[in-house]
Amino acid sequence: MFKITEFTVETIADPFKILEGDRYEFIMDLEVEEDDELFHEEGVILRVIYVVDAGTEKIVKHEFQTGDVGKYIDFEMEDDELEMVTAFCKANFS
CA distances (Å), 91 to each of 57, 70, 87, in order? Predict the structure, then answer.
């Protein structure tokens, strides 16, 4: 399990209205325990694309990256982590 320590959120522009709904990009700095397989000395960032469309709100993409250069970390969230991040996005997208 990890803890979100800082975050930024930005609306993703869609000037041509190709995509349905509003999209938000979250960049979250994470605190990860040293004994967790997700841990990296450089730190860990979670990038999330969150969609809000006609009453539906969900994560459509997420990826972990190293905190120094943003190198992709091949790691999936567990169900409880996904629930926590979804609730966090829902509370902070606007």
Answer: 11, 25, 6
Domain assignment of residue 31, given as a range: 2-92
Integer Cα distance of 45 and 27 in angstroms: 7
- Reported as a single tens digit per residue, the pLDDT across 27-69 is 999 999 999 999 999 999 999 999 999 889 999 999 999 999 9
Distance, CA of 23 to CA of 59 (rounded, Å): 10
Number of domains in the chain: 1
